[in-house]
Design a protein that fits this description.
By secondary structure, the protein is of the alpha+beta class. The protein has twelve helices and 16 strands. It has a ten-stranded mixed β-sheet, sandwiched between helices. It has a four-stranded antiparallel β-sheet with strand order 13-14-16-15. The protein has a two-stranded antiparallel sheet with strand order 1-2. Helix 10 crosses helix 12. The N and C termini lie far apart (about 60 Å). This is AADAT.
Length: about 450
């Protein structure tokens, strides 16, 4: 594929930082290399010498002085060359790679993954296709870019391929190669446990969406933080796993599986070169996300990092590596399965309370993954009711308008998260919500 069509002018104009290049050279050099180039702090001034952290099973993992020095010192933007060697079949199963030959190594660490991906791809005036409703954080990223955000409807089974084709029918497939045609080049979707809807795409729908993307030369941004929180098994294969063109940028995440608040606000990712693909893991504190995609695009994101945050938090990195070394692949999957079972139990408790208090006052579909219940209330617009009246009754939900492209229009939906509330709290929250709905319906009569 020719990725020039997808990258914007700013991204194409970026050049490597000379100092960042020298830092990488030093990292790869022999101990005999004398550096008077970079402004790196002396390790003798580091106040933290060693550390340990305790896992839920009681295991204590130690970080000695050498590891701490490495974690606190400057590093090349892509990372310091730390390698985790994993079997090919493990990588395919655990990270949903496409069926491409080769063994990936852990070689790059950067940060600011999603926002920097959009910043590399979207230009003012571009037509961008978004699954609708969609994650409010994505709207916050793309909204200020002055692009035209085009909604692609979803239903109880996720993004609707028939509506995608209908939306694209205003262009012909040949328009993608015509400058100024306005043909979209990006499709963003959340395939599993959608935020806010809780819906998941079937394998058949994914195949249909990918086929349409091939016809219209779309780059698919597959944002999949809830992949491991699917409530049905086996896992539904990803769009990336069927990608034969290099047109999928896949965002994985372990932010819902590994949450260790160490250095809040300092993101971290690592990037695995996989032939013409790059895999990146993005960590905020110890929130972990992964982007796998075409190397030409990943390289441009990396250049953006060089001129902004330079590199990710080394301290977060050493914590993460230590945890992965202890767990191994099987240990990680075991933890993921336990986490999914936990949230499935929470979902069932949430549905029980919703059925008890909201029957006849709201509608909802069964969440098939993730942490959210998407409710349509018997109310024309939920914004004021949720943002003002619900708070007065000491209950918090998110008004559905937060997930809509046009947030000025009335919206009957709300998002309820069942991740942290206890069964008793969920029951009380829905009772208070039911009272609010009745009051709102009475006032509108």
């Amino acid at each position: 594929m020719n990725y020039t069509r997808f990258l914007n002018r700013l991204s194409l104009a970026r050049k490597p930082s000379p100092i960042r290049i020298l830092t990488a050279i030093l990292n790869e050099s022999s101990p005999e290399m004398i550096s008077m180039a970079g402004g790196m702090p002396n390790t003798q001034t580091f106040p933290i010498v060693e550390a340990s952290f305790k896992l839920r099973d009681g295991t204590v993992l130690e970080l000695d002085q050498n590891i701490m020095n490495k974690g606190l010192q400057y590093a090349p933007t892509p990372g310091d060359g730390t390698v985790l060697e994993l079997d090919q079949n493990i990588m395919n199963k655990g990270l949903q790679y496409a069926p491409t030959p080769g063994l990936p190594d852990l070689v790059q660490w950067i940060n600011g993954l999603q926002s920097r991906a959009f910043e590399a791809l979207v230009s003012e005036g571009d037509n961008v296709l978004l699954e609708h409703p969609t994650y409010s954080g994505t709207l916050a990223i793309v909204g200020p870019m002055a692009a035209n955000l085009i909604p692609v409807n979803s239903d109880s089974h996720g993004l609707d391929p028939s509506h995608l084709r209908k939306t694209l029918s205003r262009w012909s497939p040949s328009d993608v190669s015509t400058p100024g045609s306005g043909a979209p080049k990006i499709l963003y979707c959340i395939p599993n446990g959608g935020n806010p809807t809780g819906t998941s795409l079937s394998l058949e729908r994914k195949k249909e969406i990918y086929k349409i993307a091939q016809e219209y030369d779309l780059l698919i941004l597959e944002d999949d933080p809830y992949f491991y929180i699917q409530f049905t098994k086996p896992y539904i294969p990803s769009l990336l796993s069927m990608d034969v063109d290099g047109r999928v940028l896949r965002f994985d995440s372990m932010s819902k599986l590994v949450v260790i608040r160490v250095n809040r606000g300092y993101p971290l990712n690592f990037n695995i070169c996989y032939q013409n693909l790059h895999l990146k893991q993005d960590i905020y504190g110890m929130r972990i996300g992964v982007l796998t995609g075409p190397k030409p695009i990943v390289d441009r994101v990396n250049l953006h990092m060089q001129c902004s945050l330079m590199h990710a938090s080394g301290l977060s990195k050493v914590f993460l590596i230590k945890l992965f070394e202890h767990w191994g692949h099987d240990g990680f999957l075991e933890h993921a399965e336990k986490t999914a079972a936990f949230y499935e139990m929470k979902r069932d408790l949430c549905l029980k309370s919703a059925e008890k208090h909201l029957k006849g006052l709201a509608e909802w579909s069964l969440p098939t993954g993730g942490m959210f219940l998407w409710l349509k209330l018997n109310v024309k617009d939920t914004k004021k009711m949720i943002e003002v009246k619900a708070r007065e009754k000491n209950v918090l939900f998110v008004p559905g308008s937060a997930f809509m492209i046009d947030q000025t229009q009335p919206c009957s939906y709300i998002r309820a998260s069942y991740s942290t509330a206890t069964p008793e709290e969920m029951d009380l929250a829905f009772k208070r919500l039911a009272d609010l709905i009745r009051e709102e319906m009475k006032d509108s009569d």
